[in-house]
Every structure is written in structure tokens, then in C-alpha cells.
Amino acid sequence: MEYSPIIHSLHVVPSSHVKNKLFVFCIMLSLWVYMIYCCVGYCSTVPNLTYGSVNRHENQAEVDNQGSSLGASRDLLNNENELDSRGDEWDEIRGEAKALDDNAMSGSLNESESKKLPQAIIIGVKKGGTRALLEFLRLHPDIRAVGAEPHFFDRNYDKGLEWYRELMPKSSEGQLTMEKTPSYYVTKEVPARIYAMSKDTKLIVVVRDPVTRAISDYTQTRSKKPDIPSFESLTLKNTSAGLIDTTWSAVQIGMYAKHLERWLQYFPMEQLLFVSGERLITDPAGEMARVQDFLGLRRVVTEKHFHFNPAKGFPCLKRPEGNSRPHCLGKTKGRTHPNIDPEVVQRLRDFYKPFNFKFYQMTGHDFGWD
User: What stretches pass through the bilayer (predicted)?
Assistant: First the structure.
């Protein structure tokens, strides 16, 4: 057969042309896939900008399985104890975080603002009224406080002071940085650790009738673990003998004088303020006046900031300059206490009486629990 260049070109040229088109098509397709991948990757990071800080706090809220700081403490709620002090407050804290952000945005941006280690700490006690006090204090323009409990000095101390500082909100010159972790008061290592951070730290302890406090502690636990033993069986080591079981943490916490002795080894009494949990309910403005004086602040938070809620049994907050509804603590606060055998309650009162008397002498204040 005779070779024909025309026929040859008819076969080669189209083939080369198709290959070029396929090559261009593949490149375009690759570029489109890459662009889509980038867009998806970017979108997946957007929620982190909004919720990153909350996630960080929730990670910090995970509970470890450490034993009681008082040594041979029997706490049914070794885990529950920590969950209660944090878990009950997360709904409130999420709302508080938004309020803090709103406050920060409402003021002019100040380049001198920075994160500082706390100059004052609410160190106790659990179920004493620490959340209420923190809420009241955050109304003051000269106070910046972190909402979640850092648990730095009792459970996160190995992470270092810089980690602790990063948890604090930014504050400007003249503003006081604060935090609250109620378990500090009963943890033996904490006084020395706070002293090492700053020997000038001001310490606030909210105390309450230790019998009522123990029942409130038990009530909080029972709301999460309905199948726990009765209050009576946990309180008494031997029912027939009527001996109080001092290894139960709910009983231990109320031995205020015993814990105070440890704090006085590092801090003078002038650096500790004991707030009455009862008067924080019946006369919040009066107790807040004491707290503001102790912190060296103007008396900004007064009676006009409070509205008593008879349904909950404690004061709610209101903005005196506005018409907004009063803000009350969350649904986990103000639980109804179970009926406890009066004889067990009396035995517990008799047990606490010498501790209370010593506590009154040490603080120079009669809290009227007996």
C-alpha cells in the first residue's frame, strides 16, 4: 500500500488535540477540587472562633480521681464532689462569659489591659454561698473575675503560674482580679501555694451553719445520685452508739476551726474575711459593704442592686439604672432539703458545737449557729 501523508495527518492530529484537552481538563478539575477542599477546611474552623474559650473551660472541668485532701476522707462523691462544684455552674458560666464580653465591648479598648494573677481569692466553702458572692462582686466595675473554678492550687498546680494567669480576664490598672474555688479552704497544700504566689493575697471565706451546709452538700449529691445511702447512715459511724463519722467529707468541711489553723500558719487574720452565708441571703447589701471595704473598693454594690425572690429563697440581682428583670442564680441553687431525723441533726449540732466555739474565738465573730 502506498504511504499517504494526508491520511497519516488525519489520524495523528485529532489524537494529539484530544490529549491536550484532557490534560487541561484534568488540571482544571484538580484546581476545583483543591479550592473546594480549602473552603471546607476553612469553614470547619469557624465555630472554634466562637466556642473555643468555652471548650477550653470544659476541658479544664474534667474530673481527676484524686483522693480527699484531708487524708483519710471517705467521700462517696470523690468524683461527684468536683463535678458538683463545677458541673452545676456551667450553664450559668456560659451566660456569664457573654456578659463579660459585653462589658468588655461596651468600654473603650484599652491597650494597657492585661491578664494578672488574682489579688483576692474566694477560697471556700462548698455550699456556703460562694457562687452568690461572686455574682454580687462582678457587679462592681473595679472587679474582674473568672466565672469557672480554676482549681489551680489544688488540682492543676503542676501547670504553673503562667497557665493560671492565662485563665484570668484582662484587667486595667486599678481593677482587682479575682477567682473562686471553694475546695481551697479544706485542701492542706493550698495555703503554702497561695503564699508562694503572693503573701499579700486577700482571702475570702463564705461560711454557713455547718449542719445546714452538710445537708445542702448531701442534697446536691442526691440530685445527681438518687441511689446513695441516707444522710443519717452517712453521718453516723455507728447508729447505736451515735458517733459522728468524721471521715465523710460533708462532715469534715464544716470543722471550720481545724482548717483555719492551717491558714493562719501562712496568713495573718487581717488578710482573711469570713462572710456569713446566712446574712448574704437576709442582708446582702450589708455583707457586700464588708466585702468591698475589705477589698479596698468603693461601696458601689448596695441595696438597690438586690431583689429578694421568695420562690427561690435568696436575693436576685438587678441593674438599678435599667428596667430589666432581676437576674437570679441557676435552677441548681435553692434545692429543697430532704427531711432528716431530728435526733441525727441534734447529734451533729452537738458534734460541731466545740468547733464552732473555737471558730468564733479565732475570728472574733459569733455567727450564731448554736
Answer: 21-37
DSSP state of 186: G
Domain count, the chain: 1
175 within some domain: yes
Determine the structural domain holding residue 308 and report its residue range: 114-210+252-333
170, 114 in Cβ contact below 8 A? yes
Catalytic entry in 127, 237, 304, 358: 127
pTM, two decimals, is 0.72
What is the C-alpha separation between 318 and 116, in angstroms, rounded?
Answer: 29
- Count Cβ atoms below 10 Å from residue 323 Cβ, excluding itself: 6
Q: Is 116 a catalytic residue?
A: no
pLDDT band at residue 97 under the 50/70/90 scheme:
very low
CB 266 within 8 Å of CB 192: yes
The verdict on whether residue 290 carries a ligand-binding annotation is: no
Q: Does some domain include residue 171?
A: yes
Q: What is the pLDDT of residues 318-338, one digit of tens each?
A: 876 655 666 676 555 556 888
Query: Mean of the per-residue pLDDT values for the chain?
Result: 80
Phi-psi region of 162 (alpha: psi -120 to 50; beta: other; left: phi over 0): alpha
Are 156 and 162 spatial neighbours (Cβ–Cβ below 8 Å)?
no
The verdict on whether residue 128 carries a ligand-binding annotation is yes
How many CB atoms neighbour CB 237 within 10 A? 16
3-state secondary structure of 133: helix
DSSP calls for 278-292: THHHH-HHHHHHHHH
DSSP assignment letter at 119 = S
Q: Which three cell numbers stand for residue 74?
A: 471517705
168-201 per-position pLDDT tens digit: 999 999 999 999 999 999 999 999 999 999 999 9
- Reference 274, options 290, 253, 292, 250; nearest CA is 290
